[in-house]
Amino acid sequence: IKRDDVLVFNFPYPNNWDRIEMHILKYYVKRCIGLPGDTLSIKNGRFRVEGIDEPLGNIKSQQKIGQTLPEEFPSGVYRCFPYDSIIGWNIQNFGPLYIPKTGDRLPMNLKNYQLYHKLISWEQKAKVEYKDSTVFLNGKPIKDYCFQKNYYFMAGDKGENSQDSRYWGLLPEEYIVGKAAFIWKSVDPYTGKFRWERFFKTIH
């Protein structure tokens, strides 16, 4: 898997965005922006990966987001994961967010709890809590955590109207089904009519 690959995956938050679950009949198609081990940011709407200079994702959409005033975004669009007032990330300015890879050990402070507790809870099948300035895993205090899985940051090409990693967080590797190669069928969501010009169009 490379940055900018278009991937098909099982949506990891089918019932709510608080817990990772598997729903084998709910698929998303999004573009991979961040790989395991990357540090990703959004600056003025544009995706940035530390140490990488090439553009990522749909640049026109990102430019539009960067040029839009915060109050002009529809309700529920501007604020982003992890929806924490102290971290305060939004669709225009986000991160830096480190994307864990297998074997990474990160300190467990308040910020990292906010960013990673859903991943840890899913990996361990256990409750993760923050209280008294300490992170607890299954009732036991932890100072750091070693990740057991790889994760990815996914984004839609229509960035101003896309439920993606900016809103629900990181994608576990094992939820990835494969790479999208072409559009098999396209239906207008508003009219229900086939969009014949998009049938069998190659995905780039």
TrEMBL record:
Cited Pfam families: Peptidase_S26
SUPFAM superfamilies reported for this sequence: LexA/Signal peptidase (SSF51306)
Gene Ontology cellular-component terms listed: membrane
Residue ranges occupied by any Peptidase S26 domain in the UniProt entry: 1-184
InterPro entries the record matches: LexA/Signal_pep-like_sf (IPR036286), Pept_S26A_signal_pept_1 (IPR000223), Peptidase_S26 (IPR019533)
Ranges that cross the membrane: none
GO biological process terms, semicolon-separated: signal peptide processing
A molecular-function term among this protein's GO annotations: serine-type endopeptidase activity
Family, as annotated: Belongs to the peptidase S26 family.
The protein's name in its UniProt record: Signal peptidase I
